[in-house]
Design brief:
This protein is of the alpha/beta class. The protein folds into three domains: about 1-60, Dodecin subunit-like, CATH 3.30.1660; about 90-125 and about 150-240, no CATH class; about 250-440, Rossmann fold (3-Layer(aba) Sandwich), CATH 3.40.50. It is about 45% helix and about 15% strand. The protein is built from 14 helices and eleven strands. An eight-stranded mixed β-sheet has the order 6-5-7-4-8-9-10-11, with helices on both faces. Strands 1-3-2 form a three-stranded antiparallel β-sheet. Helix 13 links the parallel strand 9 and strand 10. Helix 2 crosses helix 4 (about 140-175), helix 7 packs across helix 14 (about 430-440) and helix 8 runs parallel beside helix 9.
Length: about 450
């Protein structure tokens, strides 16, 4: 991205210079009149300053960027910084208020500014299957310092623009008298906000609509609803496995997760499906010897299903258990619930999951947990062998925004959702249409 501040004798001339230097697609960020030159403050000439930017190439996320980084605010370190920020906020508020007399102008400005850093789930980099085969791009070292300098120069402008967009978003959503956004759109965005959907997801939805509709007039509430449904379903669709059929080469299904999220019950449900529908010979192993009743619970399920179960307390026990169960098609492994905010437990489970046997690894998370806590766990497991998640206790919550947040911000595949204690009925593959209906309040 290139940014420029152009100073000229007239506004038409400044705008013409912007087009010449940045191209026809340049986006104007700010314009103002200034006075330059003179002696002792006298005889200064009136000039016009235009700040603009253009995007030369689409940015590429680095290999490790599996998720969208949380947007950070401008860091204020001194009293001067704070005063400058307050002044900038006041200027932005005045500009936005002036736009309220022309809703279409504000709508257009927001739509243009949204192109600076277009965020979408389709641009999230997926985990690299074979990192050794990835060839690093060649870097032109002669241009490296220049690129760094340009990026450093553009960062303050991007921060200011993001801040302006956020204020515009709040204005458009909270000042319905301005009629900047259709009342139907405001209604559904507020519904999603009440469901706990993040600001980034709401901005993405609004940006998608702005791409399709160049004017705010003539959009019916029903059209808006249908468009939002489609956008949300597309977000979910990107995070659903093509198939939940377990490969014939897979020997072990590991299920990890915090204490009390329903790992054991989920394993019983999944194992039942493999026994009854796929006709596989299934066995179970549990390492959860610390929680009272955990072993007995899994033994009860194993007895009902008539499958063998091994209880392991050490690496040696696990090795012997795998030998004992070598003739079975599939082994479900129930692990000890841990507080994975503690690094020692996270490192331990990662080592456990890296065993050389062909396996699939699931992280079980409860939908009754705050999204902020789920976010921390998902970030910690990004570098682990876990690629799929099971969301439990769907029936115990009425807030479904967490599911959309996970699908938008993280690369995990949302494989299953559990919605009750009954085995094996209360587990289902993720259904984008049904989840969207719950989010928008069409199903209760």
């Amino acid at each position: 991205m290139k940014t420029k501040k152009i100073i000229a004798d007239s506004m038409p001339l400044a705008l013409r210079m912007v087009r010449q230097q940045l191209g026809d697609n340049a986006i104007i960020v700010n314009t103002r009149s200034i006075k330059t030159g003179g002696v002792l403050g006298l005889f200064r000439k009136l000039k016009y300053e235009v700040t603009a930017y253009s995007i030369e190439t689409e940015s590429v996320l680095p290999e490790r960027s599996f998720m969208i980084e949380p947007k950070k605010g401008i860091e204020l370190t001194t009293t001067t910084d704070v005063k400058q920020q307050e002044t900038m906020n006041k200027d932005i508020e005045n500009n936005i208020s002036s736009y309220s007399q022309n809703p279409q102008k504000l709508y257009n400005f927001y739509a243009q500014s949204a192109k600076v850093e277009e965020v979408s789930p389709s641009k999230i980099a997926e985990p690299v299957e074979n990192p050794a085969k990835v060839t690093a791009p060649k870097v032109d070292e002669t241009n490296t310092s220049k690129s760094i300098e340009q990026n450093e120069q553009s960062e303050p402008l991007l921060d200011e623009l993001k801040h302006m967009r956020k204020m515009m978003m709040n204005f458009m959503l909270n000042n319905q008298d301005s009629k900047t956004l259709p009342s139907g759109l405001v209604k559904w965005i507020n519904r999603l906000k009440a469901q706990g959907v993040t600001e980034e997801v709401s901005e993405y939805i609004i940006s998608c609509l702005m791409k399709k509709y160049e004017t705010i007039t003539g959009i019916s509430d029903e059209e808006i609803k249908q468009e939002i449904e489609q956008i949300i379903q597309e977000i979910f669709q990107k995070r659903i496995p093509e198939s939940n059929v377990i490969s014939e080469n897979t020997r072990i299904i590991n299920v990890v997760g915090p204490t009390g999220v329903g790992k054991t019950t989920s394993i019983a449900k999944l194992a039942t499906e493999q026994i009854l529908k796929q006709k596989r010979r299934v066995a179970m192993i549990t390492t959860d010897v610390y929680r009272i009743g955990a072993v007995e619970q899994l033994k009860t399920y194993a007895g009902i299903l008539n499958v063998p179960i091994e209880v392991v307390r050490s690496a040696e026990d696990l090795e012997q258990a795998l030998i004992n169960l070598k003739n079975f098609d599939l082994i479900y492994m129930d692990t000890t619930g841990r507080n994975y905010k503690e690094i020692k437990y996270l490192e331990s489970v990662n080592e456990f999951l890296k065993q050389p046997i062909e396996s699939e690894n699931y992280l079980a998370l409860s939908l009754t947990t705050k999204y902020e806590d789920i976010q921390i766990l998902l970030e910690r497991f990004l570098d682990s062998p876990v690629k799929k998640i099971i969301l439990t206790k769907f029936d115990e919550t009425s807030s479904y925004g967490t599911i959309l947040n996970i699908a938008f911000h993280f690369p995990y595949q949302i494989a299953y959702i559990t919605n009750g204690q009954s085995v094996p009925e209360d587990i289902t593959a993720t259904d984008p249409t049904l989840l969207t209906s719950y989010l928008l309040g069409e199903v209760k």
